[in-house]
Amino acid sequence: MERFQKVFCLIAAAAAMSLAGLREAKAQLPPGMTVEDDSTEAEAIRDTAGLDMVTLEIDSLSDGFLDSLNLNRDIPINDYTMIGFQYGVGISQVSWNPSMQQKFRFVPVNFGFLYTRYGKMFGYMPYFGIQAGIFYGQEGYQFEEDDEGYTPTVEGATGALMQVIEVPVMAHCHFDFWKMKLMVNLGLYGGYRLSIQRFGEGVPDNIRNSFTDTDLRLDYGIKGGAGFAFVFDPIEIHFTAMYKHSFGSLYEPDYYSQYYYRYAYPANFIFSAGVHFQLTKRVGKTKHALRREAREHLGLIKAIQSNVPAETESPEVK
Fold first, then answer.
1. Which of 41, 181, 210, 262 has the fewest CB atoms within 10 Å of its CB?
2. Is 140 exposed, middle or buried (0-12, 13-18, 19+ CB in 10 A)?
3. Residue 32 backbone class (left: φ over 0; alpha: ψ -120 to 50; beta: rest)
């Protein structure tokens, strides 16, 4: 990929030399391609390369020679944005201290909107991006009877289901191939517990559907996962498995005793599918796509050298 980017810029510099002036040629180059406005350096490049625009082959130049060139490169590779909608289901439980016998609670609601911005890390590595969004979901817990026949309770409840809203911000890594991509996400989230429903015969009526003064409603923690996507530009269909772990306890640690702290941290596994729409063009994600762009740009630059308008079309990247 680096090899072809250098070739684009090298050819652009040589073509610009054959026109009336460097600035006039630069105005006709494809978007994203620039050369340094330094006639002395450009002349040295032309003399060293000895380019023949008619017979030039992209693979004819060595990597060492290309690495020795000092040219500006600004070709977009996987720099694009998306918005999307995701819906999923999950299972939830709580990390208790002290521990309590429990099982997973099925949570059938988790949906939200995501904004994705792809970009190159350090201006070079086209495998990174950032995702941010807003989600509405559920989390909860369900106690079960232990070996001695005892079922734990909290505020008289043997289980609970909470409605939550969260805002995640995650690093988004991806690897593209064919019409697919593999993805890995990792980041943080902040949230708020909107409502609660407690289950069990021992729950007082006044708190069955409301929080108590000692309950904590602000939430925060880590979120991450992996998935894959099918890419049909400009639409992408994503399938992800995410894990969310809260660092915000469900209640004040000393609510039961000021001498013995108790904690409860919710955790969710979420499996979701989503449809995402590309807002800008997705280019240069495979070697095959870069090679096609190289051929198109080479033809355009040859036309510039001949001072004839190029009859080329922007390649459809697959």
1. 210
2. buried
3. left
pLDDT band at 117; cut points 50, 70, 90: very high
Number of Cβ within a 10 Å radius of residue 55: 7
Q: How many CB atoms lie within 10 A of CB 227?
A: 19
- Residues 133 and 102: their CA atoms lie apart, in Å, by 31
With a cut of 90, say whether residue 36 has pLDDT above it: no
What sign does the dihedral 36-39-41-42 (CA atoms) show?
A: positive
In degrees and rounded to multiples of 5, residue 120 shows phi and psi of: -90, 130
Quote the CA–CA distance of 301 and 303 in Å, as a whole number: 5
Domains of the chain: 2-77+283-305 (no CATH), 81-278 (2.40.160.20)
Give bridge partners of residue 182 from the DSSP assignment.
175, 228
pLDDT digits (tens, 9 = 90+) for 231-254: 998 999 999 999 999 999 999 988
Token digits of residue 250: 């469900």
Query: Do 105 and 92 form a contact (C-beta atoms < 8 A)?
Result: yes
* CA–CA separation, 15 and 3 (whole Å): 19
Show the CA angle centred on residue 185, arms to residues 183 and 190, nearest 5°. 150
Please name which of 52, 211, 273 lies closest in space to residue 10, comparing C-alpha atoms: 52
CA distance 267 to 252: 18
Query: Which residue shows structure tokens 């494809």?
Result: 30
Contact (CB, 8 A) for 138 and 163 = yes
